[in-house]
Amino acid sequence: MERTNPITPVGFAALRARYEQLFAVERPAVVEIVHWAAGNGDRSENGDYIYGRQKLRAIDRELGQLSKKMKVAKVLDPSKQEDRDRVFFGATVTLADIDDAERIITLVGDDEANASHGRIGWNAPLARALRGARVGDVKTVTLPTGPKEWEVVGIAYPIGE
């Protein structure tokens, strides 16, 4: 069974831009350096050649990973969410813990998650616990430090065009 990965349109555009940057700009530049270095004679002690080949393998590996990610990506536009009273993909959720400390998070694709910016991956434990929740629901999340309860205080989605 093939796995699909939800991603926002912005996240997919970032993946595609990175792929195109690597494929059209960085890879040709490294190929040119390797070609030039190969013409300089003994390759066993040629630092430019050795480093260039390593860099080329790293670029090809990243291109392969990006290609796989884009192939299984399912672009979902959160602004088109019809049921805005519940937490689904793309929701920006305001949470409050037992001490009334608020935290605002946005549920995004795993490939575009950045916890320090409040962007939580769709398959993260907190995101899984919040799926389908409504304002006022209390959800328990099991963290490495133990269970923690969060109350859903607000749910928002981006406005579509």
UniProtKB/TrEMBL annotation:
Keywords: DNA-binding, Elongation factor, Protein biosynthesis, Transcription, Transcription regulation
Biological processes, Gene Ontology terms: DNA-templated transcription elongation; regulation of DNA-templated transcription elongation
InterPro entries hit by this protein: GreA/GreB_C_sf (IPR036953), Tscrpt_elong_fac_GreA/B (IPR028624), Tscrpt_elong_fac_GreA/B_C (IPR001437), Tscrpt_elong_fac_GreA/B_fam (IPR023459), Tscrpt_elong_fac_GreA/B_N (IPR022691), Tscrpt_elong_fac_GreA/B_N_sf (IPR036805), Tscrpt_elong_fac_GreB (IPR006358)
Residue ranges of domain Transcription elongation factor GreA/GreB N-terminal in the record: 5-75
SUPFAM superfamilies to which the protein is assigned, alphabetical: FKBP-like, GreA transcript cleavage protein, N-terminal domain
Pfam short name (any one): GreA_GreB_N
Gene3D superfamilies: Transcription elongation factor, GreA/GreB, C-terminal domain (3.10.50.30), Transcription elongation factor, GreA/GreB, N-terminal domain (1.10.287.180)
Keyword Transcription regulation set for record: yes
Every Transcription elongation factor GreA/GreB C-terminal domain range: 84-157
GO-annotated molecular function: DNA binding; RNA polymerase binding; translation elongation factor activity
Family under the similarity heading: Belongs to the GreA/GreB family. GreB subfamily.
Biological role: Necessary for efficient RNA polymerase transcription elongation past template-encoded arresting sites. The arresting sites in DNA have the property of trapping a certain fraction of elongating RNA polymerases that pass through, resulting in locked ternary complexes. Cleavage of the nascent transcript by cleavage factors such as GreA or GreB allows the resumption of elongation from the new 3'terminus. GreB releases sequences of up to 9 nucleotides in length.
Protein's name in the database: Transcription elongation factor GreB
Classification of source organism: Bacteria, Pseudomonadati, Pseudomonadota, Alphaproteobacteria, Sphingomonadales
